[in-house]
Amino acid sequence: MPSHDEEDKPCRACNDFKTWSKKQSKTKKEIPAPQTNAPSTEQEKRKECPLDKDELGTSTWGFLHSMASYYPEKPSTSQAKDMDSFFKLFGEFYPCEPCAIDFREDIKAHPPKTKSRDELAKWLCERHNTVNKKLGKPMFDCSKVHERWRDGWPDGSCD
Length: 159
Fold this sequence. Notes:
globular; 7 helices
């Protein structure tokens, strides 16, 4: 269980960068920024910084969809069981707690479908669209998951 100090500390993985930055500045004492020749803004961010909620989400969905699109067409019983376990464990350890809770609830209602590559990719796309709908983002056409995450678009734009 997190300590009181950890509970009060803003969670970078649970917020977009701008929100996290504002919360962070309220929890830290004002420390003068080092003098540099480069202009600095509140929204300027180094690439080596921890991922915010949006970056983490985008990266995670990219990884998960790629994994599903490269999953065996006919997995062994062991592979199917391992993939099912992966998603359950993933929901336990995802760094954004509200996101993890939502994911665990969603996969409880819609357990992973791991009997084939197409089944898993479609199931994951549906889970992603559940999140997209909640966030007011456009839905993805789940019939195109392999083009997007493995094969590339038919027009050759990914070549």
